[in-house]
Each structure stands twice: as structure tokens, then as C-alpha cells.
Amino acid sequence: MTQVETEVEPNATPLSLLDELVLTLLNEESGYFRQVPGWTLNCAVVGAALAELSFLYRIDTDMESLILLDTKVTGDPCLDPILGEIASEPRQPNAQYWIERLAPKAESIVDLTLDRLVNLRILQHHDGDFWSLARGAWMSGFHTSSEVGTAVEFVKTRISKALFYNEIPSPRDVVIVCLIDTCDVLRYIFELDEESEQRVEQILKMDLIGRAIAEAVSENIASPLLRRSTLTKPIPKVKLRKVLRSRHVRSGNIPALFAELHEEYGPVFEIRLPFQERTIFLGGRETNHWVHRNGRMYLRARDYFEDFEKVYGAVGLLPALDGADHFRYRKSIQPGYSRTRMEESLDVVYSYARREMATWGVGETLPGVTMCRNFVNAQTSPLLASIESQDIIEDLQRFKERGLQTHVAKSLPKFMLKTPGMRRRGKLVDEVVDRVQKVHTPAQRAGCPRELVDDMLSMHTSDKQFLPESNLRFLLSTPLLASMYVGDELSFVVYAMLSKPEFHEQIRAEADALFADGDPDVEALTGPGADVTRRFIMECLRMWPTLAMSVRNVMNACVVEGYELEEGVRVLISTTATHYMNDVFPDPFTFDIDRYKAPRREHLGSTYAPYGLGTHTCMGSRMAEFLMLIDLLMMVHYFDLEVAPKNYKLKIAPFASMSPNKKLKFRIAGRRHELAG
Questions:
Q1: 287-671: CATH, from 3.40.190.10, 2.60.300.12, 1.10.630.10, 3.40.50.720
Q2: What is the pLDDT of residues 251-280, one digit of tens each?
Q3: How far apart are CA 619 and CA 452, in angstroms?
């Protein structure tokens, strides 16, 4: 059974040892896997693969050698490449040799195993590379028809019977116990007393194959190579004047700046910023991959955001959370940020978009960023919070921006958030809470479709310690503040379209066709009829990502690309530097929407990262792109727009998020169609 098969009966396919190992290591509370040192985990994964091959009668092993029995492929993409390598070796080295040789392949084996478990509907994948048991993760008939329960319960039940009830374990169970003990996670899964620990020692000796693999893993001579090395390279230091001379600093293009520095200094370097603590910069293909896969174990967001939380009188907000609390928070509110919710309320999106566009007068010139932020908020405020907030949204956004500048970027002194104007704007947060509470009584919400604030309030009601009332001031304002980031990106998109006539014509043609017979449905918007517009937005996200970088503190010392990051040091991760690297996106300063078509597909992988990487990847990315698609199509269908002034050249305001500078304006040159509805 291969990973490409998607329709699988849960009780028809036996789990492999790789499946069982991965499931047993899954920590449901954190949405990730129990922390096992990298080399140990790699060896355990390869050991599970070798054991599975032995149970399929392809290999046999003793303490001296590993013997090839049958070269017939298994059909398993995890096992067949390993079988091929064994078949190509004329000697018969032992299991330890093969574990050392194959350990570098462990990451791809884990990826394939996770894909298989998702296809089997046992695991569910969440944005940010989290996993949880899928709702349909019940099973029966895996190796025996007597067991019913979740896949994880099935494996743990078998192990517990062997450990605590003195049942004779099967050879498969012996291997699983060997591997999990090698990973040193048995103590976290089961409460082991002295008697059960002795039982573990007995089980480890029961099976020759399992013993050979366990000894090869635990005694592997290469394991120190993956530990922190004292032979790390010195981190290059970039002089500040070198940075300030870059043309990308003058234009505000932060991703391009860090791509330029990466080319000269490599993926890890240090810039001494005035009045700032020591900061290490990461950027490039390799560091993106490292951050996405390993950042959760070594980097922490809390230190960077905890000062900002005080602006709203809160503690433990989502941006500052890590680990299990972060995963729990995301799971609770993820449905509210899903594109599915927006698709189910398309009539609301269209209606409020038209109502906002009705305020645009022909001949009027509007500030570009403000116009787009207000346009987005006109839709997201009622969609996510069931309130209207156009009268206060600009003040709320200015208050948040000032809070980020004073308490996060620290580009302004803190007293700048306490001016009379800022104090007045800060009080509007309470106005938002009041509006939300008035429309979220049981009677008011009866019969209404569920939205994001419903999810937030449910989380507060169910666990007031986890989400206290003191956090609601910020939390209930986030649906409104999200319009700031989406609006900033939309302003880039509109500017790019108006400055590129050939694309303007194609997007307008798609819009007119889609709206010719009324409002398009989801199928039309996601089909080939909007293909150019979709790829156009993707290219805008590459060239002008709203969030160009993220900041973390090192919580566990680590080595990245041969450079040691000390515990406590601040790290600035330019995940979008790859957007301007020629080996990733050829000719990166050329606007090219064909990058996203087959066979090129340059956006696949961790090098296209407009929404961040790792555990803090933006939850609303798919909703944001879908909303920008709708908004751009509606704008060009109903209006003729122009850039003002006509000779405007794009300059970027990079903080607190990237957006066109204030000089960009859009002129409503004419109305093309009447605003129906």
C-alpha cells in the first residue's frame, strides 16, 4: 500500500513498524513529537524500517551481519529505497553499519510515514506542521481483529500488556519496545516502577533482530556527531554602515536586503544595531528548512512579545505562546480563520464589499493603504466578529502600530504610546469589547453562522484560567486588526496591477467573465477562470510579503549551518530572503506569474514563505488570499482605478509590517458597472 492511495478503509491496512513508531512518539498535547535527540531518532527510524523488512522476509540479521533474502520490492516508498541500497552492497555488514549509513535518510522516511498516516485518516495535519489524531482515527483489524480504539491506543495497549501483565510480546512488539526505549520516551508514556523496568530489560533480550537494532542505535559511534560541536565557525559580523549603504534599505525592501547580505556573508550573520541587544540574523534556503523543522525545539517567541502584551493588559497571548499551549490555542480558533468559513458566507463578503465601494466617489483620490485596509475591514469585521467598526478601525490600527513600534521594534520610546491621542485610541479597545458582547448573547447568536469570536468566547468559557478575561481586550480586537495586514498586502497587489497594464487587462477580463451572470460561487473563484489573478497575487506576496521576518529568542543552545546560537540570544529570521535569491527564484526582481505553473512550481517547499514558517505560521493565510482574490476582482469589475501621482515609484514602509509608503494614492477614475445588490 503506497502513500498515493487516498481512499483507504481504516480497518483494511495494517500499520507498519514505522507507522507505529511515529504514532507512539506523537504528543497529542503539543501537536508534535516527543523530543528525541536528532541522531537517536534517525537511528530509531532506520531501525524500524530494517525490522519491517525482516518481517517481510526481505532481510535477516544477526549480531555479525545483515543478510539479503529477497530483492522483490515491497511497494512501500519508505522501504524500497533501503532495500535497493542493501541489494547494491556486495558485502554483508551488520545492522549498525546500515543504521549509520541510512540515518541521513530518516527525515524523508518520517515525511513519507506522516503522509501515509494522513492518507489513512489516522492523523490530521495542521498549519505550522502540527499533527493530531483525526476524528476517524478508530481502527480494528490491525494485525488482530480483537482490538478496537484509536491507532495510538492500539499500539500502547499492546505495549502495556507486555510491560504490566507479563503477556508474551510478539516479535513486532519487542521491536517497538526496543525502539521506544532507545528513544528514552517509555517513561513519559507509561509510569514505570522497578518491576516494569526489569520487564523492559527482559523484553529487550527476547528478539535477536530487535536486540541487534537497539544495540546498534544505543551504541552508535556516530551519535556524538549530531551533538553540539566545539568546532563551530565564528559568526560573521556585518558593519552597520555596510547595511545602510544598500539600495534596498533606501527602498525599504527588507527581503531583498537580507538576500544580498546572505550572498556575501552566508546564512548566519550578526549586525550590531544601535541601542539594541545582540541580534543574530538567519536567512536562506537551509535556515528556512531548519526553522520550519526544528525551530520549535530551540526558539521561543515569548521573550519578544511579552512586553507588548502589557499594552493590552494581557498575559499569554497567542503570538507569545509556545509548545502545548500554543497548539491548544491554535486548534481552538483555527476554524474561525479557515477559508471554509468565508466560502460559506460569500454573500456577506460581496454585500459588505459593495457597501464600502459605494462610498468611493468618481474623481476622488484616496490614500492607498488606508483605502485597502478599510475595504478589507468592511468585510472581515462583520464576518469574523459580527460587528461593524469602520468608524474606529483606523484609530485601532494606529494604536497597535504604535504599540509594536514602542514595545516590540523599540524604534520609539515607550512614552510615545502614552500621548493624549494614543490614550484616546487605546480606550477604543474597550469599545470593541462592548460591541462584541452586545451581539454575542445566546439570543443574539441564535441561528447565526458560527464565526471566529464565537470560537474565542467558547474557549474563554470552557477554561477561564487558560484564557482569562484580562486577555479578551486584545483577543476580541484581533479580527479587526487582521485587516491591517491583509489591507497592506492588497495595496501592494492593486499598485502592481495598475502599474502593469498587460496584467491589468487580463485580471479585468477574468473579473468581467466571473461577474457576468451575477456573483461567482466558490467553484468559479477557485477554478481556471481566476487563474491569472491567483498567480498574480502569489507573485505580489513573493515580492512584497507583509511580514518580512520574525524575531525569536534561543531557549536551547543549538548549531545552525555550523554556527552556534547561544541560549538567550535574540534571532531575527528573514524567512522571505529566499524570495530574492536567484537560485530559488530565477531573476527574482522580474515580476513573473508563471513561476507558479507546472513544471516550474518555484513556490513549493520552505523557500516561499510570505506567511512565516514553523509553528507560528499565519493561521489565516488561505482566508487572506481568498479575500484578496475576491476584492481585486470586484475592484476592477466595478471601477477604473489609477495610481496617483502617475509618476509614483514604489517605496516600502517596512515597520511594523511592510506596506507601500503614505505617498501612494489610488484615484477612482470611473465606474464600469453599477453596484448591484
A1: 1.10.630.10
A2: 999 999 999 999 999 999 999 877 677 889
A3: 12
